[in-house]
Design a protein that fits this description.
The complex is a heterodimer of chains A (101) and B (231).
Chain A (H helix, E strand, L loop, with lengths): L4 H22 L7 H19 L2 H5 L3 H16 L4 H18 L1
Helix pairs in contact in A: 4-5
Chain B lengths: L1 H30 L4 H11 L2 H12 L4 H12 L1 H10 L8 H9 L3 H8 L7 H25 L5 H8 L1 H16 L1 H20 L4 H19 L10
Helix pairs in contact in B: 1-3, 1-8, 2-8, 3-4, 5-7, 10-11, 11-12
Classes of the chains: A mainly alpha (101), B mainly alpha (231).
Chain lengths: 101, 231
């Protein structure tokens, strides 16, 4: 059975919209609970870290290139370079290393 | 309008990164039988890399619609947490329409931009970033469907780390001044590696489990002093 792709897209759109929008519209006051506030404070750092590693190593054709991008990206970000510079450095890392390997 | 222009500028790297990631996503969408227009539409409406990836694979398998609902909930559940956090970054009294639009376009990157604003995020700042990056995301998907196999793999490989570069630029600078954040990043890297390598837990499920467990750990071990976080 072949389902309709437009219905799939509608299902995807509605589901993801509800997931994103319900907390944002229901919670309209500052949260006072200490644990919840601290928990939410740490969420983005943990989520982004978890999604970066080991995914960055699996994203490239050669895992070494991904590892280099990770290391040089961390150094660049640590030195205070902005989003764009760090991104370009990561891409160049992969391009150069995969050219030689 | 100053906020909008600032957002537009900060949205440039996000747009370029999105374009690259969406391009690879387009290759997967093509395999699932989507036309360039359908890919464009899906990306314009859904705005989720992991979520769309899972969805395209599901379309290829012709799963029942109800199963698609489950897949979208699981692969996007982290947005519930982000949406809660973002609700704290929006000035109380902000109109519902702004909340709905910000919710519709809630992605990891727009979220990161929003929480970097102090103390509150002006919706127009986010709209500036979205106005450039969202079209990049949608058109990148369509272009990936059209010509995914034309570009050399080496170029696609290099472009695919763009997104992670952005993640690093977001999480590393605060780690310089906050030891708890630095420690949590290291623990997150290690746990994520272990879970993805030695268990059969899917990547998006691992993200859910670790986000809840490690953020709780952080809140217990390192209570944030004073009021220097999102109110």
């Amino acid at each position: 059975m072949r389902n309709n792709i437009y219905i799939y897209i509608a299902v995807m759109t509605i589901t993801v919209f509800l997931v994103r929008v319900l907390p944002l519209t229901i919670i309209r006051r500052p949260i006072t609970n200490r644990f919840i506030r601290d928990f939410l404070y740490y969420v983005p750092y943990v989520t982004l870290s978890v999604m970066t590693f080991p995914a960055i190593i699996n994203a490239t054709e050669n895992p070494l290139a991904g590892a280099a991008a990770l290391i040089f990206g961390i150094i660049a970000a640590y030195r205070g370079m902005g989003l764009f510079k760090v991104t370009v450095i990561c891409c160049l890392c992969v391009l150069i290393i995969e050219y030689f390997l | 309008m100053n906020s909008f222009r600032k957002g537009l500028k900060d949205g440039l790297p996000i747009g370029f990164g999105y374009f690259a990631v969406a391009f690879s996503l387009g290759i997967i969408a093509a395999g699932a039988g989507l036309t360039p227009f359908q890919g464009f539409l899906a990306s314009l409406l859904v705005n989720a890399s992991a979520g769309e990836n899972a969805a395209f694979i599901a379309i290829k398998e012709s799963v029942p619609y109800l199963q698609m609902v489950m897949i979208m909930i699981v692969s996007n559940i982290r947005y519930v947490l982000m949406s809660f956090a973002l609700s704290q970054k929006i000035r109380p009294g902000t109109a519902l329409i702004h909340r709905l639009i910000l919710g519709f376009f809630l992605t990891d990157e727009y979220f990161a931009l929003a929480v970097s604003q102090d103390p509150y995020c002006d919706p127009y700042y986010s709209y500036g970033a979205i106005s450039f990056a969202a079209p990049c995301w949608a058109s990148g998907t369509a272009l990936g469907i059209v010509m995914g196999n034309i570009l050399p793999g080496r170029i696609v490989s290099a472009l695919s780390v763009a997104l992670f570069g952005m993640f690093l630029a977001i999480i590393i600078p605060p780690a310089r001044t906050s030891r708890p954040i630095a420690i949590l990043i290291v623990i997150s890297f290690i746990s994520s590696y272990l879970l993805n390598t030695f268990t059969s837990v899917s990547e998006s499920t691992a993200t859910i489990i670790l986000t809840i467990a490690l953020s709780s750990l952080g809140a217990i071990l390192f209570p944030v002093k004073g009021d220097n976080h999102a109110q």
